[in-house]
Specification:
single chain; ABC transporter involved in vitamin B12 uptake, BtuC
Length: 365
Amino acid sequence: MSAPRKLPRWADLGLLPLVSLAAALLVSCGVIALLGESPVQAMRLLVSGAFGSPEAVGYTLYYATNFIFTGLAVAVAYHAGLFNIGCEGQAYIGGLGTGLVCLGLGHLSFWLVLPAAVLAGAAFGGAWALIPAWLQARRGSHIVITTIMFNFIAAALMTYLLVNVLINPGQQSPETREFAAHAWMPAAGDLPGRLGAAFATSPLNLSFVLALAAAAALWVYVWRTRWGYELRVVGQNPAAAVYAGISPGRITVVAMVVSGALAGCLGLNELMGSQHRILIDFPSGAGFVGIAVALMGRNHPVGIVLAAVLFGALYQGGSQLTFDLPRINRDMVVVIQGLVILSCGALENLFRAPLARLFGRVDSK
């Protein structure tokens, strides 16, 4: 019996994720039916909660901004053959850099604060990723283990700083004072034209545009530069990379620094764009969601943006779902998210083989 044909590239990148997503939603509908609620009504509420109004779209894109940054961070490490699970900690420390700039330079013009905040967030996040990268490149420590450990170290460090060093005097909540107005990211409602007016009541801000720019820059870096070529060679065949004169250790360090820098930009959206202060646990798990976003987006910037919007919709639409259907709580929304991750990640090959056979029959006719 002949082996099934490989999927066409367009089907592998587009059709297979859609089939996986549809399967996850079907299973979710079955679970919702077992709870005694209408699956049709639940899916309608999920979609309308995410896209049914300008405000809902604004919140969906606001959540998606975080997932774009972290998804890109996971993807650039993946192309080098690395599995960066430390984006949560890198986003935390990167946000510290962004917040310190906003606290110290908030009296200056926003257009001076913005580049400084971007550079600080990227530098702090990249520096936090540099340590596990160096440990793997020079000492052989596994990147998965060290990045997980550094998530806990980052959380402990930030707790100490916010409780004992950066806390606003006279309050008990572990957070800094509010940034000066010049250090606030312009909200979509502040932008001119009808687009801004449509999102005036949501936290969507200029960081979404910066996230899209980061996705475009990563595409150029990975697929249109010599450095990106070296990164992909190391990820696909380290032995061939050594034979070609490429140092896997150097690429490991570079890839992780770039990955950490991308994750560190999450603070632009959360701190400058929404909270306007540094506070405890502001990444809120976005670093871990970025893993699922990168997997579902096939580690390609376009796919990552689309997957980030999907998970943003699940976050925003899930809130509407739990509000209108009392039998479906927040944990049920997490179950739906988990089913999407399971179907699009771990069970991907369950649908790949049947689709490949289908395309093989079509081509043979």
